[in-house]
Design the sequence.
């Protein structure tokens, strides 16, 4: 059946979002934090495309429909940790009825049914107003700085998913992301990429980001253990 559907099956344990959407929710949060801290949504999307993704996270939101995520956020509002940082920019955009491509504007403008969006100065004004409301002094981020946060969030949550047995091994996370989430194939998946980057470097990044937000940037115990033992995620693929 999987062959017929041209799909790649991956066994997953049960949690909110399974393997892919659970990790996606976390790196999307990292992107939202970057946006509120000073990077524009257009800079973040460009950085993610430069890594090899076909689209950035805000382009994906516009394609899927901003109202989808908005409904989920409203549903989860009651159970959200009150201490956790929450970025309201996407909510402000949705409140205006801008849900992306289907409404002609979201994070981007889609004049006359255009498929490729154009940056919207009004969205940047909303972003700016939200920063002021939160007392955030915007700072600039290079593409590399954007990607370091985005990828560290992805890898860290990937490690938690493996540790909890939601994914049987890191390879299953890699297959999920290359098959279903547009992860650039030549980079082999987020866990493979992390091994090639060097886990100590990624852990050091997470620990430095944790100085700003210790709740969000909690290093996965599995990542800490692998660094201590001088091993990579690939060592867990062999163990099966």
Sequence:
């Amino acid at each position: 059946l999987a062959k017929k559907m041209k799909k790649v099956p991956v066994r997953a344990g049960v949690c909110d979002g399974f393997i892919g959407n659970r990790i996606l929710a976390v790196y999307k949060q990292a992107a939202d934090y970057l946006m509120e801290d000073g990077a524009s949504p257009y800079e973040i999307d460009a950085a993610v495309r430069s890594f090899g993704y076909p689209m950035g996270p805000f382009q994906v939101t516009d394609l899927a429909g901003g109202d989808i995520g908005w409904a989920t956020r409203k549903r989860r509002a009651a159970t959200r940790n009150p201490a956790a940082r929450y970025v309201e920019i996407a909510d402000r955009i949705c409140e205006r009825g801008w849900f992306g491509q289907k409404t002609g504007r979201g994070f981007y403008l889609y004049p006359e049914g255009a498929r490729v969006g154009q940056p919207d100065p009004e969205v940047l004004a909303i972003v700016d107003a939200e920063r002021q409301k939160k007392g955030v002094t915007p700072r600039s981020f290079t593409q590399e700085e954007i990607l370091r946060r985005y990828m560290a969030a992805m890898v860290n949550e990937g490690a938690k998913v493996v540790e909890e047995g939601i994914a049987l091994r890191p390879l299953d996370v890699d297959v999920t992301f290359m098959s279903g989430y547009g992860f650039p194939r030549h980079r082999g998946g987020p866990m493979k990429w992390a091994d090639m980057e060097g886990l100590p470097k990624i852990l050091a990044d997470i620990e430095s980001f944790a100085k700003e937000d210790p709740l969000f940037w909690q290093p996965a115990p599995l990542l800490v253990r692998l660094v201590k033992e001088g091993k990579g995620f690939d060592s867990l693929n062999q163990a099966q």
Summary: Residues 1-5, 12-17 have pLDDT under 50 and may be disordered. The two ends are 25 Å apart (CA to CA). DSSP finds twelve helices and two strands in the chain.
